[in-house]
Design goal:
29% helix; 5 strands; single chain
Length: 97
């Protein structure tokens, strides 16, 4: 394997655990709910649950409940508003408390 391919693979692998740009500076808190691990980051009235457990093509409804519980554990806020077009690997929520 050439050095270029190794560099590309390492770069892509390192970029997969930072969340979206709004949350890059936020310190993640690792939470496990129903055997699904999430890195939860909070910025102002927004929280983001990034699924770090590998799941091959999970259904959105399978991940949403545990993600909401993970955010509730970290923030203490059980009321969240989730965009209806969320990705099952990174779910951004507006805290409603």
């Amino acid at each position: 394997m050439s050095k270029r391919w190794i560099f590309i693979l390492l770069t892509l692998g390192a970029a997969c655990d930072r969340g979206t740009p709004m949350f890059w500076d936020a310190q993640p808190t690792r939470v496990v709910v129903n055997a699904i691990a999430f890195d939860v980051r909070v910025v102002g009235p927004f929280a983001q649950a990034e699924r770090v457990t590998f799941m091959a093509f999970p259904k959105r409804r399978t991940v949403l409940g545990p993600a909401r519980r993970a955010v509730a554990q970290v923030t203490g806020c059980s009321q969240h508003r989730v965009d209806t077009d969320y990705d099952p690997s990174i779910i951004t929520m507006r805290l409603m408390c």
